[in-house]
Structures
1.
Amino acid sequence: MTRSRHTIATHLPIAVLVAAALTVTVMLGPAPAADATMPASRDTRSQVDATPAVAGAASADLPGYRSWVGRVTRSDLGPTWKPGCPVAPSQLREVGVRYVGFDGQAHEGSIIVHKRRVYSVRRIFQDLYHQQFPIRRMETMDFFRGNDDRSMAWDNTSGFNCRKVTGGTSWSRHSYGVAIDLNPRENPYVNGSTVLPWNTGDYVDRDRDRPGMLQPGSAAVRAFTSRDYDWGGAWRTLKDYQHFER
């Protein structure tokens, strides 16, 4: 059974959709400026052997939370997986979730994680949904052809991507499907003079608490840490505010 490929959501005017489609198609074009408007996300792909959805009540202004799970193949993963990666495609799952965007509306996206992390990931994003914690976009990394810099620049929340750690040679925890990067532009990676993504703007200043930021002790951070995820924002030698791993 073949899953449908990327399509553009239809909640925006036609002119915006055309511009978004062109932006997405030219994946090797320049990354967006710090104040660029994000293109519309594609609809979540149809599931293969999907497990039952998880639903929950939301506020009066939002539909209930929804989550679903599907298997993935090597073809689905595209360039994000290659021979030699530490996990096989059969060990991974695509988790679709309903999330609250920066516009305050409900959207749907998906993330690929290790099959042993599916339960916790569904519950984490359920918590974030009920908190109405805003998420910019959620595309699986094949949408960006495994280009982590481009995914971060587009403020994409992501999971599995078989790659080495930033500035190193060992496998990233993302290569195992056990790490999640949440709102990278609002929550940059900071290691000395290295700041990623390049268009994070003044979000390096953590004293100015703004929507989508992850702060120590916040409900959004607790949604992860209460389920035994480590937060990169609490690391000592560097700060990876977007990053959670378990």
2.
Amino acid sequence: MNEELRKLSREQLIELVEIYSKDWLACDGLWFQAVEKRHGMDGAMDCDKEIWRSFTVIEAGRIKEFLKLPDRSGLEGLEKAMRMRLYANLNDEEYIIEGDTLTYRTLNCRVQRARSRKGMEWHPCKAVGEIEYADFARVIDDRIDCRCISCYPDITEEERKGCCAWVFTLRA
């Protein structure tokens, strides 16, 4: 353990988590843009999907262990776990549980804002999101299915054009 971390206050640790989250996303974006520049969007998306197949399972497993969630922790467990993801420190998000569904929306997407600022086309994240969110949910509870409501390039919620929305359903 880094002994310097033990010397930090709670507020400093929270700030450091936010810095680490931004650094992680910057690294993710920079490698993606390098692959995109060299191999085009399709090549970059192929690599991105491959990476997320592994990373999302690792992240979900570590969060599940940290939170001490049972194997079938339902939608409440999924919401708790999603609130601990690196993305949760970077984007404004909304979670709504109604019956056997959890609706998750990104209300302000840091990735799409950054690409827009740089004059780049939007990241077509739906294909990656289908892997990322479904696999994350399955690690938390294997009874949970995931479906996209709106995600670029398939936007159905025009008022949130650069943001995504997903619905998770708990099967009986």
3.
Amino acid sequence: MKQAIKAVIFDMDGLLLDTEKVYFKGYQNARTAMGLAPYDAGFMELIGLPIPAGRPLLEAHLGAATDAFEAQWEHEIRQLMTARIPAKPGVRRLMTQLQDQQIPYAIATSTFTSKAHDHLERAGLGDLFDTIIGGDQVQNGKPAPDIYLKAASTLKIDPRLCAAFEDSENGVRAAVAAGMTTVQIPDIKPPSDDLRKLGHHIADTLLEGARHLQLNET
């Protein structure tokens, strides 16, 4: 298994950065601020989607209030993320181990590239990632495979020789469609029975997932 993996591609939000909980809290706060009833399922539908793909889902629930809600949601997120953004456990350790083994890696995130750079810097991880493919760099976002294929192309590695780490359903579907060995580290939404049928690996932590693929030492 170890010899087959020539590169590793990571999602960002909910996998490397503990931001999905922040986005969820901001979503809830925005609904409260606008006098809207709780609708947590609406947020769950958006996980892993690029902003343009998620907007029609918001419009289906909010109609003409969508613009105002998006502005309020962004405001709430900024309020919650004024300081350091928390990183998930094991990120720096895993990247150091990959560097020691000379295994290239990249980020493939639905977040726009400039914002991804900013969030990584504020998480204290900006020095670890040279290759970041953001959602603004591809025409079709997750669950389409485009962003993973672009990341593999940028690294000059056959997608079939890449491992992909994801937390969301849409991200898993994108990575599997790209032909990558896929590991899911679920965050706030557990994998559905339908998703499990894809046959990908599921682990509790990044380091556990890496051990499963023999990508780290311990």
4.
Amino acid sequence: MFHLGQTELIVILVIVILLFGVGRIGKIANELGSGIRSFKSGLSGEDNNKTE
């Protein structure tokens, strides 16, 4: 579908860093990882938010 080379990926990465900044990219990645973990645990039926 998309055939991106190494140069194109580097240019895209630089543009993303310029738009969002390094600190905000880390925060976005953290939130994305948390969402993926939550999604996976929801699919497997695990309940990490047990209230007693």
